[in-house]
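User: I'm putting together notes for a lab meeting next week and I want to include a structural view of one of the chains we've been expressing. I don't have a solved structure, so I'd like a prediction I can at least talk through. The sequence is below, exactly as it appears in our construct file.
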Amino acid sequence: MVDAGESVGQMAAHLARIHNACLKTRLQPLGLSPAQFQALAALDLHGEQTQRALAGVLAVEQATMANTLSRMERDGLIERKPHPDDGRAQLIRLTERARERIEPARQAARAADQVLLDGLPMAEQALFVSMLGRVNGAMEKAALDSPG
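Assistant: Thanks for the context. Below is the predicted structure for the 148-residue chain, given as structure tokens.
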């Protein structure tokens, strides 16, 4: 049970902010922000897709995704090409420059994750990751099931 003065959501948000700052520091030498890393990883995993689809995968607003992709395009990390079935849409794909950064960026993310996990005994780290995955899954389902 959480103390009356503590909110689990606030604690999770605080943890996310600290982890994001740690990740940002580790990605900076690669010329990537955490948001760019998320987009890069999603495009690597799912292949080329529209801005709308990518925003959905990452659960971010369209405007946020547009800003991130604009910076990535400016930095030569993505290319846009016309969508073959929708004249209003474009497909986003990674450039070779981005592909060269995928593994170093994943290593940076693993290093940031390890900083987070180092606060737990080894025996509890896998349990924490498992529980975090289940909580995230439950929250995503609740968000999808809720009206509005």
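A couple of points you could mention at the meeting. The mean pLDDT is 91. The helical segments are 8-27, 34-46, 51-58, 62-74, 96-117, 122-145.

User: Perfect, that's what I needed.
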